[in-house]
Amino acid sequence: MEYDWKLVLGAASAVVAFINYLPYLIGVVQKTLHPHAFSWIIFTAITATIAVAQLTAGAGAGAWATAATSLTTCLIAGFALRNGGYRITRSDKLSLFGALAAIPAWVITANPLIAVIILTGIETLGFLPTYRKAWHQPHDESVLAFSLTLLKYGLALGAMGNYTLTTTLFPIALILLSSVLITELLIRKQVVKAHPR
Questions:
Q1: 38 and 93 in contact (C-beta within 8 Å)?
Q2: Mean of the per-residue pLDDT values for the chain?
Q3: Is this structure's pTM higher than 0.85?
Q4: Do the beta carbons of residue 44 and residue 63 sit within 8 Å?
Q5: Quick check: 37 and 85 in contact, CB under 8 A?
Q6: Cα–Cα distance measured from residue 197 to residue 181, given in angstroms and rounded to the nearest whole number
Q7: Which residues, in sequence order, are CB contacts of 72 under 8 Å at separation 6+?
Q8: What Cα–Cα distance (Å) separates residue 41 from each residue in 23, 119, 134, 137?
Q9: DSSP 8-state secondary structure symbol assigned to residue 63
Q10: What is the pLDDT of residue 86?
Q11: So where are the chain's domains?
Q12: Separation CA 47–CA 36 (nearest Å)
C-alpha cells in the first residue's frame, strides 16, 4: 500500500512540474517572453542528469518531478533557440560548459552522487542573480511559480523509493532555495509597496 501512495505522490509531483512552467512555456511559444536559451539548456542538462542519477540510486517515483521538469525546460530551451537565443556571451558559454562538465565527471567516476553534488552547487549559484534581481525588482518574479516548486519537490520527497543523499540532495536544496526567494519576494514587495519611488 505504501508503494501505491509513492506512485500517486510521484505522479502528482510530475503533474505539478508540468504546471510549474506551463505559463512560461506558453509565453515562449507565443513570443511574449524571451528567455535566454543557454540558461534553459543548462536547466535541462542539470535536471536531466539529476533525474538519471536519482533513478540509478533507486529514487523510483521520487525522480518523476525532476524528469518532468527536464522535459519542460527542454521545450522552453528549444523555443528560445528558435526565437533567437538572446545575446549569448562568453560567460554564458562558460556556464553551459560548467553544467555539462558534471556529466563526464559522473561517467568517469561511475558515481551519481558526484554529479548530483556538482549540479546542485551549480543550481545554487544560479539562484544568486535571481536573489539580486528580486531585491531590486520583486514584482518581476512569481511567488506562485516558486511555491509550485516547493509543492513539486515536497511531493517528490514523499515519493522517493530510496532515501539517500543522491536522491534527496537536489529536491531539498530547491525547497530551501525557493523558500528563501519566496520570503525575500514577500518582504520586498511589501517594502516597495509601502515606499514606492
A1: yes
A2: 83
A3: no
A4: no
A5: yes
A6: 22
A7: 17, 18, 20, 21, 22, 25
A8: 18, 13, 22, 25
A9: G
A10: 55
A11: 2-191
A12: 17
